[in-house]
Specification:
alpha+beta; globular
């Protein structure tokens, strides 16, 4: 009678030497793959950077040439910035915004980068909310992206641009946080001409979207300052029609986020603008 051991072949276990050989080979394979993986990640980042610079240059040129602007290429460029910003903000409980903005500065497509800049700003309130101010070039287009965290990961939560806010003056914008306890801020747009003509808008991020609180008119000889008392806006309230560079009456308004509302607290007449000494 044949033994069952002879009718069924029993696989022998691998020898220890063979196991060591396989493990060593696998280890070398992983080590060999790691530099390749780093190179691939670097290549992806370089490709995204090059693509962004091309898109930014095209968006700026379209604005300067007065051609029809499309939302698709602008959102594509902004999507690259979103990915970079969210990755950076999610990497630390206390993100280093100076380091982030230095990295953003490497994305400029113009030389010199006149009117082109990308800057992360922390807004008021807790948990932390951040805004990215985007200026593709002198004269626009421009946008604001707002990032909020869910389970420690930041993602795009709201956007401000002329496609979603038709009256948004998307040219050479600056962003000024005006509340320490809530995500309320002012955008200043324009102010690049000889008369510093600009438009100012107050916004509040309510957790889902950016809510417009107030828009100013186009104001000549405009300037602003934000401090603990509120947002101080100085402008020419009575231009000299015969001499545009002169102002017959300058005015300063004080605005404040107070009791859940954007309020003008006071207005002061400053008299005629002083003519600069020659």
């Amino acid at each position: 009678m044949n033994s069952i051991c002879f009718r069924f072949r029993i696989a022998r276990p691998l020898s220890w030497r063979r196991v060591v050989s396989l493990a060593t080979a696998a280890g070398f394979s992983v080590l060999a793959f790691m530099p390749l993986a780093r190179c691939l990640r670097a290549q992806v980042k370089n490709d995204s950077s090059a693509e962004f610079k091309q898109l930014a240059a095209e968006l700026s040129a379209a604005r300067l040439n007065g051609t029809v602007e499309s939302e698709i290429p602008q959102e594509k460029a902004l999507g690259i910035l979103d990915e970079l910003a969210c990755s950076f903000l999610s990497s630390s409980a206390l993100p280093d915004l100076d380091a982030a903005n230095q990295r953003m500065a490497n994305l400029v497509s113009h030389t010199p980068p006149v009117g082109e800049n990308y800057r992360l700003v922390r807004l008021g309130g807790s948990p932390a909310v951040y805004a990215l101010v985007v200026n593709f070039g002198l004269g626009g287009p421009a946008a604001v992206r707002i990032y909020a965290a869910t389970n420690g990961r930041y993602a795009l939560a709201a956007r401000i641009d002329h496609f979603v806010e038709r009256d948004f003056f998307d040219s050479d914008i600056e962003l000024i946080p005006v509340s320490a306890t809530e995500s309320v801020f002012v955008t200043a747009a324009g102010r690049t001409d000889d008369l510093s003509t600009g438009m100012f808008s107050a916004w509040r991020f309510d957790g889902r979207r950016a809510v417009l609180l107030w828009n100013s008119d186009l104001l000549q000889q405009s300037n602003y300052e934000a401090d603990r008392n509120g947002f101080h806006l100085t402008y020419c309230a009575q231009p000299d029609e015969d001499h545009p560079a002169k102002c017959l009456k300058m005015t300063q308004d004080l605005y404040r986020w107070q009791a859940g509302e954007w309020k003008r607290i006071e207005t002061n007449d400053l008299g005629p603008a002083k003519t600069p000494a020659r």
